[in-house]
Recover the amino acids of this structure.
DNA sequence: CCGGCGATATGAGTAACGCTCATGTTAAGC
DNA sequence: GCTTAACATGAGCGTTACTCATATCGCCGG
C-alpha cells in the first residue's frame, strides 16, 4: 500500500542490502525514540546501531525529520492493516463497535510497537509538499495529512462497511474524531505508562457522542 | 497570578533593566516562532533581536526549552485572564455559552497574539518536575500539566460560576475536553490561516455533546 | 567473460547550534 | 564608603546535522 518511500526517502533502495539497511535504520530509530525521545535522537547513533555509516544514512534519508516521518508512515500502515484484519475477523454489529475496535487497536499498538508511543501518525512531522506553513511550526504541521489519510481509510474500513450514508459532513467529522481521539489517547499515555483506562474509556465516549450526530441509527 | 518565573527561569530578574530584558526576549521569541517555528528558532537570534548578549540570555533562561515554556506560561495566563474578563462582562445563561466563549477567545488569541499559534498552552514543552518520562518524548509530555491548569481554572471560571455539581468525574471530563478542543482548534488552524470556521464550529459541538453527559440540565 | 555505468559505500570535514565560564561592571544595604 | 550580591559579556567548547570527494560494487548487454 502506501510505501515508506512515498516522498520521504531521498533514494529508494533498489538492491537487496540497501533495502535491509533502510529497514534496520527504521527499526533502530523506533527503539531509540523510546529510549531518548525525539530531541535526544541523533542520526549518528541511529546509524551506529544499525551498523551503517553516516554517509549511507544520508544517501537514503534526507534528514532527521525524514527518518522519523518514514517511521510514522510505516506505523500508520501497520495500524491500518491490523485494523482491517480485525474488522474482518470480529463480529461488528454496530458502528460503535468499530470505533471501540479502532481505539483498542490503537492503544494496543502504543503499548507494543516500538516508537509508536512517540510517533503515531503523525504527531511529529509534516510531509513534504504539505500545506503552506508560513509562520507555523513544522512540528505542529504534521497531523493534518496523516490524520486525513487515517480518516480516509477509516471511512472505507468502518463506514462503508456498515453502509452509512456518505458526504462531506461525515468526512469532516471523521477527521475531527481522529484528531480528538489521538489527543486524548496521548493524554492517557502521559498519565499512565500503559494508558490510563479511565481516559481511554472517556475517549470512546467522546467519539461515540460526537459521531452519533453524523451517523444515523440503524 | 501564575508568574512566568514559576519554575521556568534560572533566576528571577530583580532589577528594572533585567525585567525589561526578560520581557523583550519573550516578545522576540514569540515573533520569531511565528516566522521560523520551533526548530528554526535559535537562542542566538532571540538574543540578538532583543539586543541582549547571549550570556545574559542564559543568566535567566535555563535553555531553549525553558524560553518557550516561559512563553507558553505567559500565553496561558493571558488567555485565562481575558476569559475571566469576558465571562464577567457578557451575559451567560447556560454553560454551553461559556464553552462557546472559551473557544471563541482561544481562537481570537490564536489569530492575534504572536507565538500563540505555535505555543498555546502547552503543546510544546514539559514543565520541570513533571511526570516521569522514561521512554517518552519530551515534546509530547507537555500538554498534561498545562491543560490540567487550564481545566482547573476553567472549572472555577465556568462551572462553579454556574453552580454545577463538582466531583472527580467532572474534573476528568474537563481535562479531556480541553485536550480535545486544543487538538481540533489546532487542526482548524493548519487547514486555514485564520482558522477554518467549519472546524471551529465542529469543535464547539464536540465539546458540548461530550460535556452534556457530565453536566446536568438546568 | 568482459566492459561499463549507475547504484551504493565511506568517513573526514564543515557550518552552525546550544550552552558555559572566567572576568568585569553595576546597583543596593548598612 | 565599603561589602555583597546581582547583573553583563562574548570568546570559546563540545556536539550536532549534514556534505562531498572518492572509491567500490552489482548488474546487464554484448
Amino acid at each position: 500500500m502506501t510505501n515508506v518511500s512515498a516522498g520521504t526517502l531521498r533514494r529508494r533502495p533498489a538492491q537487496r542490502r540497501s533495502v535491509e539497511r533502510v529497514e534496520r535504520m527504521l527499526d533502530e530509530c523506533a527503539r531509540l525514540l523510546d529510549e531518548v525521545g525525539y530531541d535526544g535522537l541523533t542520526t549518528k547513533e541511529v546509524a551506529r546501531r544499525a551498523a551503517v555509516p553516516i554517509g549511507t544514512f544520508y544517501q537514503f534519508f534526507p534528514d532527521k525529520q525524514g527518518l522519523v516521518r518514514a517511521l510514522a508512515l510505516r506505523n500508520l500502515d501497520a495500524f491500518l492493516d491490523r485494523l482491517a484484519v480485525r474488522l474482518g475477523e470480529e463480529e461488528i454489529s454496530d458502528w460503535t463497535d468499530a470505533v471501540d475496535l479502532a481505539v483498542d487497536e490503537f492503544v494496543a499498538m502504543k503499548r507494543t510497537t516500538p516508537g509508536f508511543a512517540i510517533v503515531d501518525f503523525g504527531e511529529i512531522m509534516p510531509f513534504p509538499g504539505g500545506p503552506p506553513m508560513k509562520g507555523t511550526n513544522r512540528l505542529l504541521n504534521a497531523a493534518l495529512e496523516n490524520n486525513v489519510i487515517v480518516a480516509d481509510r477509516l471511512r472505507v474500513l468502518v463506514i462503508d462497511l456498515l453502509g452509512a450514508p456518505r458526504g462531506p459532513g461525515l468526512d469532516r467529522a471523521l477527521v475531527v474524531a481522529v484528531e480528538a481521539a489521538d489527543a486524548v489517547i496521548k493524554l492517557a499515555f502521559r498519565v499512565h505508562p500503559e494508558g490510563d483506562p479511565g481516559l481511554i474509556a472517556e475517549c470512546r465516549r467522546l467519539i461515540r457522542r460526537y459521531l452519533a450526530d453524523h451517523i444515523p441509527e440503524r
Observations:
- DSSP finds eight helices and no strands in chain B.
- Chain B touches chain A through 47 residues (CB under 8 Å).
- Residues 122-144 of chain B have pLDDT under 50 and may be disordered.
